[in-house]
């Protein structure tokens, strides 16, 4: 992944404020040539700096009103197999490797408590999963954000 410089950060902040802005509008707003903005956007997309668009879709809009974080303990040397098994479950939004007692932190969504039970059973059925612990997400106090980091990178902080 490429580093983001101050100009890239300013461009990303402008996109965050108006995701539908045209290249021309962005170039006028930032005082950059249209070709510069287009080239930077293309580079940011091709280098994986920009997350996929589906990251912006809220699970609640699809009927998944219950969120949970599941810690998973894995049998030694089964991490790759367990990760593939988790990726096959549509309700698994994200899997993060951890240090400490738990090996993985799995963010899941469910329609209701019965659905979460079904998903938990699927997790436990993956070969290599030893144990899971589930914590319900009750309320989000700070949404996923990048603005403060981009402002710092842009020299605006």
Automatic annotation (TrEMBL):
Residues 4-65 form the HTH asnC-type domain. It comes from the Bacteria. Keywords: DNA-binding, Transcription, Transcription regulation. This is Lrp/AsnC family transcriptional regulator. Signal peptide: none annotated. InterPro entries: AsnC-type_HTH_dom (IPR000485), Dimeric_a/b-barrel (IPR011008), Tscrpt_reg_AsnC-like (IPR019888), Tscrpt_reg_AsnC/Lrp_C (IPR019887), WH-like_DNA-bd_sf (IPR036388), WH_DNA-bd_sf (IPR036390).
């Amino acid at each position: 992944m490429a580093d983001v410089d101050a100009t890239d950060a300013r461009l990303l902040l402008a996109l965050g404020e108006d995701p539908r802005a045209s290249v021309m509008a962005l170039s006028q707003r930032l005082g950059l040539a249209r070709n510069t903005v287009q080239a930077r956007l293309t580079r940011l997309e091709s280098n994986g700096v920009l997350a996929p668009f589906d990251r912006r879709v809220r699970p609640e809009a699809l009927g998944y009103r219950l969120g949970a974080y599941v810690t998973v303990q894995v049998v030694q040397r089964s991490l790759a197999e367990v990760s593939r098994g988790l990726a096959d479950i549509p309700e698994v939004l994200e899997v993060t490797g951890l240090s400490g007692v738990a090996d993985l932190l799995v963010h899941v969504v469910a329609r209701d408590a019965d659905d979460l039970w079904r998903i938990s059973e699927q997790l436990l059925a993956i070969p290599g999963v030893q144990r899971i612990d589930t914590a319900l997400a009750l309320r989000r106090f700070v949404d996923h954000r990048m603005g403060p980091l981009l402002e710092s990178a842009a020299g605006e902080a």
